[in-house]
Specification:
Blueprint: H1 2-18, H2 31-44, H3 49-67, H4 71-78, H5 83-111, H6 117-135, H7 160-163, H8 165-192, H9 197-200, H10 204-229, E1 235-247, H11 252-255, H12 261-272, E2 280-282, H13 296-308, E3 312-321, E4 324-332, E5 337-340, H14 354-357, E6 380-382, E7 385-391, H15 398-402, E8 410-415, H16 425-440, E9 444-448, E10 454-456, E11 462-465, E12 472-482, H17 486-490, H18 493-513
Amino acid sequence: MKTKFIFLNILVLLAGGIMPFAFAPMHLFPLAPLSIAALLWAWLHADSPKACALFGFLFGIGMFGVGVSWVYISIHVYGNTNVFLSVLITALFISALALFPTVQGYLLKRFFSLDKSLVLITAFPASWVLLEWVRGKIFTGFPWLYLGFSQTGSPLRGYAPLFGSFAVSFVVVLSAVLVVLVIRNIGLDSQQSGNDERVCGNDDKQIWKNRIIPLFILVLFWSFGIVLTRVSWTQPTGQPMQVSLVQGNVPQQIKWNPQQVLPTIEKYIRLTQPHWDSPLIVWPEAAIPLPLPFAHSDVDKLKATARKHHSYLLTGIPIETDSKIYNGAVLLGMQQGQYLKRHLVPFGEYVPLEKIFRGLIQFLDLPMSSFSAGHMQPLMKAGRLPIALYICYEIAYSDLVRSDLPQAQVLITISDDAWFGKSSAAAQHLQIGQMRSIESGRYGLFCANNGITAVISPKGRIIRRLPQFEEGVLTAKITGMKGSTPWVFWGDLPILLFSILTLLIALSINKKSS
Protein backbone atom coordinates (compact mmCIF):
# COMPACT_ATOMS: atom_id res chain seq x y z
CA MET A 1 0.00 0.00 0.00
CA LYS A 2 2.82 2.38 0.87
CA THR A 3 4.63 1.54 -2.36
CA LYS A 4 1.48 2.30 -4.35
CA PHE A 5 1.10 5.66 -2.60
CA ILE A 6 4.70 6.60 -3.37
CA PHE A 7 4.21 5.54 -7.00
CA LEU A 8 1.12 7.76 -7.32
CA ASN A 9 3.01 10.70 -5.82
CA ILE A 10 5.76 10.29 -8.40
CA LEU A 11 3.19 9.81 -11.17
CA VAL A 12 1.33 13.08 -10.53
CA LEU A 13 4.53 15.06 -10.06
CA LEU A 14 5.86 13.81 -13.41
CA ALA A 15 2.46 14.31 -15.07
CA GLY A 16 2.43 17.92 -13.93
CA GLY A 17 6.03 18.35 -15.02
CA ILE A 18 5.35 17.26 -18.60
CA MET A 19 2.17 19.33 -18.89
CA PRO A 20 4.00 22.57 -19.95
CA PHE A 21 5.44 20.71 -22.96
CA ALA A 22 1.89 20.71 -24.35
CA PHE A 23 2.23 24.50 -24.62
CA ALA A 24 4.58 26.62 -26.71
CA PRO A 25 7.39 26.35 -27.59
CA MET A 26 7.08 22.54 -27.75
CA HIS A 27 3.40 22.46 -28.87
CA LEU A 28 2.95 18.77 -27.92
CA PHE A 29 -0.78 19.36 -27.41
CA PRO A 30 -1.78 15.67 -26.81
CA LEU A 31 0.22 15.84 -23.56
CA ALA A 32 -2.44 18.10 -22.02
CA PRO A 33 -5.28 15.53 -21.83
CA LEU A 34 -2.80 12.72 -21.12
CA SER A 35 -1.31 14.62 -18.16
CA ILE A 36 -4.76 15.35 -16.78
CA ALA A 37 -5.68 11.70 -17.28
CA ALA A 38 -2.70 10.68 -15.11
CA LEU A 39 -3.85 13.08 -12.38
CA LEU A 40 -7.38 11.69 -12.51
CA TRP A 41 -6.05 8.13 -12.38
CA ALA A 42 -4.24 8.98 -9.16
CA TRP A 43 -7.34 10.60 -7.69
CA LEU A 44 -9.37 7.47 -8.50
CA HIS A 45 -6.89 5.43 -6.45
CA ALA A 46 -6.73 7.85 -3.52
CA ASP A 47 -8.36 6.69 -0.30
CA SER A 48 -9.20 10.11 1.17
CA PRO A 49 -9.75 13.78 0.27
CA LYS A 50 -6.39 14.60 1.88
CA ALA A 51 -4.62 12.17 -0.43
CA CYS A 52 -6.35 13.75 -3.43
CA ALA A 53 -5.29 17.19 -2.19
CA LEU A 54 -1.68 16.02 -1.94
CA PHE A 55 -1.77 14.55 -5.44
CA GLY A 56 -3.25 17.80 -6.75
CA PHE A 57 -0.58 19.86 -5.01
CA LEU A 58 2.25 17.72 -6.42
CA PHE A 59 0.70 17.96 -9.88
CA GLY A 60 0.53 21.75 -9.53
CA ILE A 61 4.14 21.93 -8.32
CA GLY A 62 5.24 19.99 -11.38
CA MET A 63 3.06 21.96 -13.81
CA PHE A 64 3.81 25.48 -12.58
CA GLY A 65 7.33 24.65 -11.42
CA VAL A 66 8.28 23.77 -14.98
CA GLY A 67 5.84 26.13 -16.69
CA VAL A 68 6.26 29.49 -14.94
CA SER A 69 9.53 29.28 -13.02
CA TRP A 70 10.81 31.97 -15.42
CA VAL A 71 9.59 34.56 -12.90
CA TYR A 72 12.88 33.79 -11.10
CA ILE A 73 14.78 35.46 -13.95
CA SER A 74 12.98 38.78 -13.60
CA ILE A 75 13.33 38.72 -9.81
CA HIS A 76 16.99 37.69 -9.60
CA VAL A 77 18.66 38.76 -12.85
CA TYR A 78 16.83 42.04 -13.48
CA GLY A 79 15.47 42.74 -10.01
CA ASN A 80 18.91 42.31 -8.41
CA THR A 81 17.50 40.16 -5.61
CA ASN A 82 19.84 37.62 -4.04
CA VAL A 83 19.55 33.97 -5.02
CA PHE A 84 18.04 32.75 -1.74
CA LEU A 85 15.26 35.33 -1.67
CA SER A 86 14.59 34.92 -5.40
CA VAL A 87 14.21 31.16 -5.00
CA LEU A 88 11.95 31.66 -1.98
CA ILE A 89 9.66 34.11 -3.78
CA THR A 90 9.49 31.89 -6.86
CA ALA A 91 8.72 28.83 -4.72
CA LEU A 92 5.94 30.66 -2.88
CA PHE A 93 4.46 31.82 -6.18
CA ILE A 94 4.50 28.30 -7.64
CA SER A 95 3.06 26.84 -4.43
CA ALA A 96 0.22 29.37 -4.48
CA LEU A 97 -0.68 28.35 -8.03
CA ALA A 98 -0.47 24.66 -7.05
CA LEU A 99 -3.26 25.26 -4.54
CA PHE A 100 -5.83 25.28 -7.35
CA PRO A 101 -5.50 21.57 -8.30
CA THR A 102 -5.06 20.91 -4.57
CA VAL A 103 -8.46 22.39 -3.78
CA GLN A 104 -10.04 20.69 -6.76
CA GLY A 105 -8.76 17.26 -5.72
CA TYR A 106 -9.95 17.69 -2.15
CA LEU A 107 -13.43 18.90 -3.11
CA LEU A 108 -13.97 16.23 -5.77
CA LYS A 109 -13.12 13.42 -3.35
CA ARG A 110 -15.02 15.05 -0.49
CA PHE A 111 -18.31 15.68 -2.28
CA PHE A 112 -18.41 13.22 -5.20
CA SER A 113 -18.20 9.49 -5.77
CA LEU A 114 -15.42 9.31 -8.32
CA ASP A 115 -16.17 5.71 -9.19
CA LYS A 116 -19.27 6.82 -11.15
CA SER A 117 -18.63 7.61 -14.80
CA LEU A 118 -21.35 10.24 -15.13
CA VAL A 119 -20.03 12.06 -12.08
CA LEU A 120 -16.53 12.12 -13.55
CA ILE A 121 -17.73 13.32 -16.95
CA THR A 122 -19.64 16.20 -15.41
CA ALA A 123 -17.84 17.23 -12.21
CA PHE A 124 -14.20 17.04 -13.28
CA PRO A 125 -14.26 19.26 -16.42
CA ALA A 126 -16.69 21.74 -14.84
CA SER A 127 -14.66 22.18 -11.66
CA TRP A 128 -11.41 22.58 -13.64
CA VAL A 129 -12.87 25.34 -15.81
CA LEU A 130 -14.37 27.21 -12.86
CA LEU A 131 -11.06 27.11 -10.99
CA GLU A 132 -9.22 28.34 -14.09
CA TRP A 133 -11.64 31.25 -14.18
CA VAL A 134 -11.04 31.98 -10.48
CA ARG A 135 -7.26 31.86 -11.06
CA GLY A 136 -7.68 34.52 -13.73
CA LYS A 137 -9.57 36.80 -11.34
CA ILE A 138 -8.26 36.46 -7.80
CA PHE A 139 -5.56 38.96 -6.73
CA THR A 140 -5.75 40.60 -10.22
CA GLY A 141 -5.45 37.14 -11.78
CA PHE A 142 -2.84 34.95 -13.42
CA PRO A 143 -4.40 33.62 -16.64
CA TRP A 144 -1.33 31.65 -17.70
CA LEU A 145 -1.12 27.99 -18.76
CA TYR A 146 -4.87 27.67 -19.21
CA LEU A 147 -5.35 24.24 -20.78
CA GLY A 148 -7.17 25.77 -23.73
CA PHE A 149 -4.10 27.75 -24.74
CA SER A 150 -2.19 24.52 -25.35
CA GLN A 151 -4.55 23.56 -28.16
CA THR A 152 -3.89 26.39 -30.65
CA GLY A 153 -2.50 23.78 -33.05
CA SER A 154 -4.99 21.00 -32.33
CA PRO A 155 -8.49 20.26 -33.68
CA LEU A 156 -9.93 21.46 -30.36
CA ARG A 157 -9.10 25.07 -31.27
CA GLY A 158 -12.30 24.98 -33.33
CA TYR A 159 -14.33 25.42 -30.14
CA ALA A 160 -12.60 28.71 -29.24
CA PRO A 161 -14.56 31.01 -31.60
CA LEU A 162 -17.77 29.52 -30.18
CA PHE A 163 -17.22 29.70 -26.42
CA GLY A 164 -13.63 30.83 -25.87
CA SER A 165 -10.54 29.19 -24.42
CA PHE A 166 -12.44 27.94 -21.35
CA ALA A 167 -14.55 25.76 -23.66
CA VAL A 168 -11.35 24.30 -25.08
CA SER A 169 -10.13 23.64 -21.53
CA PHE A 170 -13.44 21.90 -20.80
CA VAL A 171 -13.05 19.56 -23.79
CA VAL A 172 -9.40 18.85 -22.91
CA VAL A 173 -10.38 17.72 -19.40
CA LEU A 174 -13.40 15.82 -20.73
CA SER A 175 -11.04 14.04 -23.14
CA ALA A 176 -8.84 13.06 -20.20
CA VAL A 177 -11.87 11.60 -18.39
CA LEU A 178 -12.90 9.61 -21.45
CA VAL A 179 -9.37 8.24 -21.87
CA VAL A 180 -9.36 7.12 -18.23
CA LEU A 181 -12.78 5.49 -18.59
CA VAL A 182 -11.63 3.49 -21.63
CA ILE A 183 -8.35 2.43 -19.99
CA ARG A 184 -9.94 1.68 -16.63
CA ASN A 185 -12.62 -0.55 -18.15
CA ILE A 186 -10.07 -2.39 -20.24
CA GLY A 187 -8.01 -2.90 -17.12
CA LEU A 188 -11.00 -4.26 -15.21
CA ASP A 189 -11.79 -6.71 -17.98
CA SER A 190 -8.19 -7.89 -18.09
CA GLN A 191 -8.10 -8.34 -14.34
CA GLN A 192 -11.29 -10.37 -14.33
CA SER A 193 -10.19 -12.49 -17.26
CA GLY A 194 -9.50 -16.05 -16.22
CA ASN A 195 -11.42 -15.72 -12.94
CA ASP A 196 -14.85 -16.05 -14.43
CA GLU A 197 -15.51 -17.15 -18.00
CA ARG A 198 -18.81 -15.27 -18.01
CA VAL A 199 -17.11 -12.04 -16.90
CA CYS A 200 -14.22 -12.60 -19.29
CA GLY A 201 -16.64 -12.92 -22.15
CA ASN A 202 -18.61 -9.75 -21.42
CA ASP A 203 -21.67 -9.48 -23.65
CA ASP A 204 -21.81 -6.92 -26.42
CA LYS A 205 -23.97 -4.54 -24.42
CA GLN A 206 -21.47 -4.35 -21.56
CA ILE A 207 -18.55 -3.83 -23.94
CA TRP A 208 -20.48 -1.01 -25.65
CA LYS A 209 -21.20 0.63 -22.32
CA ASN A 210 -17.72 0.35 -20.82
CA ARG A 211 -15.46 0.93 -23.81
CA ILE A 212 -17.08 1.93 -27.05
CA ILE A 213 -19.27 4.76 -25.77
CA PRO A 214 -16.43 6.77 -24.09
CA LEU A 215 -14.22 6.16 -27.12
CA PHE A 216 -17.00 7.23 -29.48
CA ILE A 217 -17.63 10.44 -27.52
CA LEU A 218 -13.89 11.20 -27.52
CA VAL A 219 -13.64 10.77 -31.30
CA LEU A 220 -16.85 12.76 -31.78
CA PHE A 221 -15.60 15.81 -29.87
CA TRP A 222 -12.24 15.87 -31.65
CA SER A 223 -13.84 15.29 -35.06
CA PHE A 224 -16.36 18.07 -34.51
CA GLY A 225 -13.44 20.30 -33.54
CA ILE A 226 -11.91 19.63 -36.97
CA VAL A 227 -15.19 20.63 -38.63
CA LEU A 228 -15.33 23.87 -36.62
CA THR A 229 -11.78 24.86 -37.62
CA ARG A 230 -13.02 25.12 -41.21
CA VAL A 231 -15.68 27.69 -40.34
CA SER A 232 -14.82 31.35 -41.06
CA TRP A 233 -16.72 33.54 -38.62
CA THR A 234 -15.33 36.88 -39.80
CA GLN A 235 -14.67 38.48 -43.18
CA PRO A 236 -11.93 40.76 -44.58
CA THR A 237 -12.80 44.42 -44.98
CA GLY A 238 -10.91 47.06 -46.93
CA GLN A 239 -7.68 46.65 -48.84
CA PRO A 240 -4.69 44.63 -47.57
CA MET A 241 -2.27 46.78 -45.56
CA GLN A 242 1.48 46.33 -45.30
CA VAL A 243 2.77 46.44 -41.73
CA SER A 244 6.31 46.49 -40.37
CA LEU A 245 7.09 45.33 -36.83
CA VAL A 246 10.43 46.53 -35.45
CA GLN A 247 12.35 44.33 -33.00
CA GLY A 248 15.17 46.36 -31.45
CA ASN A 249 16.62 43.67 -29.15
CA VAL A 250 17.76 46.25 -26.60
CA PRO A 251 19.33 44.47 -23.58
CA GLN A 252 17.22 44.87 -20.45
CA GLN A 253 20.31 45.74 -18.41
CA ILE A 254 20.81 49.00 -20.31
CA LYS A 255 17.31 49.87 -21.47
CA TRP A 256 16.50 52.23 -18.60
CA ASN A 257 19.98 53.69 -18.30
CA PRO A 258 19.63 57.47 -18.98
CA GLN A 259 22.78 57.41 -21.11
CA GLN A 260 21.24 54.74 -23.38
CA VAL A 261 17.97 56.55 -24.14
CA LEU A 262 19.26 58.37 -27.22
CA PRO A 263 21.15 55.33 -28.66
CA THR A 264 18.00 53.24 -28.19
CA ILE A 265 15.80 55.71 -30.06
CA GLU A 266 18.42 56.05 -32.79
CA LYS A 267 18.52 52.26 -33.19
CA TYR A 268 14.76 52.10 -33.77
CA ILE A 269 14.93 55.00 -36.24
CA ARG A 270 17.75 53.26 -38.12
CA LEU A 271 15.84 49.98 -38.32
CA THR A 272 12.68 51.79 -39.43
CA GLN A 273 14.30 53.96 -42.10
CA PRO A 274 13.95 51.46 -45.01
CA HIS A 275 10.32 50.69 -44.09
CA TRP A 276 8.53 54.04 -44.16
CA ASP A 277 6.66 52.77 -47.21
CA SER A 278 4.61 50.57 -44.85
CA PRO A 279 1.34 52.31 -43.93
CA LEU A 280 1.66 50.98 -40.35
CA ILE A 281 4.91 50.59 -38.39
CA VAL A 282 4.93 49.21 -34.87
CA TRP A 283 7.61 49.58 -32.20
CA PRO A 284 7.45 47.47 -29.00
CA GLU A 285 6.61 48.31 -25.40
CA ALA A 286 8.63 51.27 -24.06
CA ALA A 287 10.67 51.42 -27.26
CA ILE A 288 11.12 55.07 -26.32
CA PRO A 289 12.35 54.67 -22.70
CA LEU A 290 11.69 58.28 -21.79
CA PRO A 291 8.28 59.50 -20.58
CA LEU A 292 6.19 62.04 -22.38
CA PRO A 293 6.39 65.04 -22.15
CA PHE A 294 10.21 64.73 -21.75
CA ALA A 295 10.45 62.96 -25.12
CA HIS A 296 8.34 65.52 -26.99
CA SER A 297 11.13 66.63 -29.35
CA ASP A 298 11.83 63.03 -30.47
CA VAL A 299 8.12 62.28 -30.78
CA ASP A 300 7.52 65.41 -32.87
CA LYS A 301 10.29 64.43 -35.28
CA LEU A 302 8.83 60.93 -35.65
CA LYS A 303 5.37 62.41 -36.17
CA ALA A 304 6.67 64.66 -38.95
CA THR A 305 8.48 61.78 -40.64
CA ALA A 306 5.39 59.56 -40.49
CA ARG A 307 3.27 62.31 -42.03
CA LYS A 308 5.82 62.90 -44.75
CA HIS A 309 5.59 59.24 -45.78
CA HIS A 310 1.78 59.04 -45.27
CA SER A 311 2.42 56.36 -42.69
CA TYR A 312 1.55 55.64 -39.06
CA LEU A 313 3.98 54.80 -36.28
CA LEU A 314 2.70 53.06 -33.15
CA THR A 315 5.24 52.99 -30.35
CA GLY A 316 5.32 52.12 -26.69
CA ILE A 317 6.33 54.99 -24.40
CA PRO A 318 5.72 55.88 -20.74
CA ILE A 319 3.27 58.77 -20.48
CA GLU A 320 3.26 61.26 -17.62
CA THR A 321 0.12 63.30 -17.12
CA ASP A 322 -1.75 64.81 -14.18
CA SER A 323 1.13 63.91 -11.83
CA LYS A 324 0.72 60.24 -12.75
CA ILE A 325 2.82 58.03 -15.00
CA TYR A 326 1.36 55.34 -17.23
CA ASN A 327 2.76 52.50 -19.28
CA GLY A 328 1.44 53.67 -22.60
CA ALA A 329 1.71 54.03 -26.35
CA VAL A 330 1.18 56.73 -28.95
CA LEU A 331 0.08 56.60 -32.58
CA LEU A 332 1.85 59.14 -34.76
CA GLY A 333 0.93 60.23 -38.29
CA MET A 334 -1.95 61.99 -40.01
CA GLN A 335 -4.14 60.94 -37.06
CA GLN A 336 -2.93 60.92 -33.48
CA GLY A 337 -3.78 58.47 -30.74
CA GLN A 338 -2.80 57.57 -27.21
CA TYR A 339 -3.24 54.47 -25.07
CA LEU A 340 -2.74 54.01 -21.34
CA LYS A 341 -2.29 50.43 -20.14
CA ARG A 342 -5.35 49.25 -18.24
CA HIS A 343 -4.26 46.02 -16.51
CA LEU A 344 -0.96 46.33 -14.67
CA VAL A 345 1.34 43.57 -13.44
CA PRO A 346 1.50 43.49 -9.61
CA PHE A 347 5.02 44.24 -8.28
CA GLY A 348 6.29 44.62 -11.86
CA GLU A 349 4.40 47.80 -12.75
CA TYR A 350 2.88 48.78 -9.43
CA VAL A 351 3.22 47.73 -5.82
CA PRO A 352 0.06 46.63 -3.96
CA LEU A 353 -0.12 48.14 -0.45
CA GLU A 354 2.81 50.31 -1.45
CA LYS A 355 3.40 51.88 1.95
CA ILE A 356 4.05 48.42 3.39
CA PHE A 357 5.93 46.71 0.57
CA ARG A 358 7.81 49.44 -1.29
CA GLY A 359 11.51 49.05 -0.56
CA LEU A 360 10.96 45.99 1.62
CA ILE A 361 12.94 43.87 -0.81
CA GLN A 362 15.03 45.02 -3.70
CA PHE A 363 13.06 43.43 -6.50
CA LEU A 364 10.16 45.76 -5.78
CA ASP A 365 12.33 48.65 -6.97
CA LEU A 366 12.36 47.54 -10.61
CA PRO A 367 12.64 50.37 -13.15
CA MET A 368 9.30 52.02 -13.91
CA SER A 369 7.38 50.07 -11.22
CA SER A 370 5.16 52.94 -10.13
CA PHE A 371 2.67 53.06 -12.98
CA SER A 372 -0.97 54.03 -12.68
CA ALA A 373 -3.69 52.10 -14.48
CA GLY A 374 -5.61 53.56 -17.41
CA HIS A 375 -9.30 53.07 -18.06
CA MET A 376 -11.50 52.27 -21.04
CA GLN A 377 -10.36 54.38 -24.00
CA PRO A 378 -11.49 54.97 -27.59
CA LEU A 379 -9.81 52.76 -30.17
CA MET A 380 -6.94 54.25 -32.12
CA LYS A 381 -7.21 54.32 -35.93
CA ALA A 382 -4.46 53.95 -38.50
CA GLY A 383 -6.35 55.53 -41.37
CA ARG A 384 -9.57 53.54 -41.57
CA LEU A 385 -8.21 50.60 -39.56
CA PRO A 386 -9.51 50.49 -35.94
CA ILE A 387 -6.81 49.05 -33.67
CA ALA A 388 -7.21 47.19 -30.39
CA LEU A 389 -3.92 47.66 -28.53
CA TYR A 390 -2.63 45.62 -25.59
CA ILE A 391 0.60 46.11 -23.73
CA CYS A 392 2.30 42.87 -22.74
CA TYR A 393 0.27 40.96 -20.15
CA GLU A 394 -3.08 42.50 -21.15
CA ILE A 395 -3.63 40.12 -24.08
CA ALA A 396 -4.11 37.30 -21.53
CA TYR A 397 -7.35 38.82 -20.22
CA SER A 398 -10.29 37.77 -22.39
CA ASP A 399 -12.71 40.34 -20.95
CA LEU A 400 -10.28 43.14 -21.80
CA VAL A 401 -9.98 41.93 -25.39
CA ARG A 402 -13.73 41.51 -25.81
CA SER A 403 -14.34 45.06 -24.60
CA ASP A 404 -12.71 46.30 -27.84
CA LEU A 405 -14.73 44.03 -30.13
CA PRO A 406 -16.28 43.88 -32.66
CA GLN A 407 -15.24 47.48 -33.42
CA ALA A 408 -11.52 46.64 -33.57
CA GLN A 409 -10.44 45.05 -36.85
CA VAL A 410 -6.94 43.98 -35.78
CA LEU A 411 -5.32 43.05 -32.44
CA ILE A 412 -1.88 44.48 -31.66
CA THR A 413 0.26 43.46 -28.70
CA ILE A 414 3.46 45.31 -27.88
CA SER A 415 5.65 43.81 -25.19
CA ASP A 416 9.10 43.45 -23.69
CA ASP A 417 9.63 39.83 -22.65
CA ALA A 418 13.34 40.47 -22.11
CA TRP A 419 12.46 40.38 -18.40
CA PHE A 420 12.29 36.58 -18.69
CA GLY A 421 15.50 35.85 -20.60
CA LYS A 422 15.83 32.71 -22.70
CA SER A 423 12.85 30.97 -21.13
CA SER A 424 9.55 29.69 -22.49
CA ALA A 425 7.70 32.84 -21.33
CA ALA A 426 7.83 34.64 -24.69
CA ALA A 427 6.56 31.58 -26.59
CA GLN A 428 3.75 31.07 -24.07
CA HIS A 429 2.86 34.76 -24.38
CA LEU A 430 2.68 34.51 -28.17
CA GLN A 431 0.49 31.41 -27.91
CA ILE A 432 -2.01 33.37 -25.82
CA GLY A 433 -2.06 35.90 -28.65
CA GLN A 434 -2.79 33.06 -31.07
CA MET A 435 -5.77 32.03 -28.97
CA ARG A 436 -7.13 35.59 -28.94
CA SER A 437 -6.89 35.72 -32.75
CA ILE A 438 -8.77 32.41 -32.98
CA GLU A 439 -11.46 33.57 -30.56
CA SER A 440 -11.97 36.93 -32.28
CA GLY A 441 -11.32 35.96 -35.90
CA ARG A 442 -8.79 38.76 -36.35
CA TYR A 443 -5.18 39.20 -37.34
CA GLY A 444 -2.81 39.56 -34.43
CA LEU A 445 0.39 41.61 -34.53
CA PHE A 446 2.91 40.74 -31.84
CA CYS A 447 5.81 43.19 -31.54
CA ALA A 448 8.39 42.51 -28.83
CA ASN A 449 11.69 44.15 -27.93
CA ASN A 450 13.72 40.94 -28.16
CA GLY A 451 11.02 38.64 -29.57
CA ILE A 452 8.95 36.88 -30.32
CA THR A 453 7.78 39.33 -33.01
CA ALA A 454 5.16 37.69 -35.23
CA VAL A 455 2.07 38.08 -37.40
CA ILE A 456 -0.86 35.79 -36.54
CA SER A 457 -3.70 34.87 -38.92
CA PRO A 458 -7.39 35.00 -37.89
CA LYS A 459 -7.19 31.20 -37.57
CA GLY A 460 -4.32 31.48 -35.09
CA ARG A 461 -1.55 30.40 -37.47
CA ILE A 462 1.85 32.09 -37.28
CA ILE A 463 2.23 33.65 -40.74
CA ARG A 464 5.68 35.10 -40.19
CA ARG A 465 8.01 35.62 -37.23
CA LEU A 466 11.45 36.98 -36.43
CA PRO A 467 14.19 35.00 -34.68
CA GLN A 468 14.32 35.80 -30.99
CA PHE A 469 17.22 37.82 -29.53
CA GLU A 470 18.06 39.44 -32.88
CA GLU A 471 17.31 42.93 -34.10
CA GLY A 472 15.21 43.06 -37.24
CA VAL A 473 12.04 44.19 -38.96
CA LEU A 474 9.16 41.90 -39.87
CA THR A 475 7.06 43.07 -42.82
CA ALA A 476 3.83 41.39 -43.88
CA LYS A 477 0.40 42.18 -45.29
CA ILE A 478 -2.75 41.97 -43.22
CA THR A 479 -6.40 42.83 -43.72
CA GLY A 480 -8.84 44.32 -41.26
CA MET A 481 -11.52 41.80 -40.25
CA LYS A 482 -15.16 42.62 -39.61
CA GLY A 483 -17.94 40.62 -38.03
CA SER A 484 -18.24 38.72 -34.76
CA THR A 485 -17.52 35.19 -33.71
CA PRO A 486 -20.06 33.78 -31.26
CA TRP A 487 -17.46 34.30 -28.51
CA VAL A 488 -17.22 38.02 -29.32
CA PHE A 489 -21.00 38.23 -28.98
CA TRP A 490 -21.50 36.37 -25.70
CA GLY A 491 -18.02 35.93 -24.21
CA ASP A 492 -17.11 33.37 -21.54
CA LEU A 493 -20.48 33.53 -19.78
CA PRO A 494 -22.12 30.53 -21.52
CA ILE A 495 -19.30 28.10 -20.74
CA LEU A 496 -19.09 29.34 -17.13
CA LEU A 497 -22.86 28.97 -16.65
CA PHE A 498 -22.72 25.57 -18.34
CA SER A 499 -19.93 24.50 -15.97
CA ILE A 500 -21.95 25.60 -12.94
CA LEU A 501 -25.04 23.78 -14.23
CA THR A 502 -22.96 20.68 -14.99
CA LEU A 503 -21.52 20.74 -11.49
CA LEU A 504 -25.03 20.94 -10.02
CA ILE A 505 -26.10 17.99 -12.17
CA ALA A 506 -23.09 16.04 -10.91
CA LEU A 507 -24.11 16.77 -7.32
CA SER A 508 -27.63 15.57 -8.08
CA ILE A 509 -26.39 12.36 -9.71
CA ASN A 510 -24.03 11.75 -6.82
CA LYS A 511 -26.79 12.31 -4.24
CA LYS A 512 -29.28 9.99 -5.95
CA SER A 513 -26.76 7.17 -6.31
CA SER A 514 -25.37 7.43 -2.78
